[in-house]
Amino acid sequence: MPQITVDYSAHLDETFDHHGFAGALHPLIAEMVTTKIAACKTRFRRVEETAVADAPDGDAIVHVEIALLAGRTPEIKARLTESVVELLAGHIEPTDGLTLHLSAETRDLDPSYRKN
């Protein structure tokens, strides 16, 4: 815990600094939710095809999902989510003609969550 998943459009292969983002994300999360950096686990999932409303093929999506053990206030989760979107923007280089849609959410893990 925290379990972090980053879904991103294949369009961003050359411009999204995955490792730099994770390297900055883990200390941010650890500080904001009072956990250890070593507890942060991030998976990056490249998405081959995305669609944004009726937009042309030039759109790209990045969505970050952070799952935490229950107990954080809605205010802390909202602040974390806002901070993650800001951080994310700094790790993707702008590309001419490519509209970027960034989003994040912070949620509680299901009570059935177990780790080893």
Automatic annotation (TrEMBL):
SUPFAM superfamilies associated with the record: Tautomerase/MIF (SSF55331)
Keywords carried by this UniProt record: Isomerase
GO molecular function: isomerase activity
Matches recorded under InterPro entries: 5-COMe_2-OHmuconate_Isoase (IPR004220), Tautomerase/MIF_sf (IPR014347)
Protein name: Isomerase
Naturally occurring in which organism (per UniProt): Streptomyces brevispora
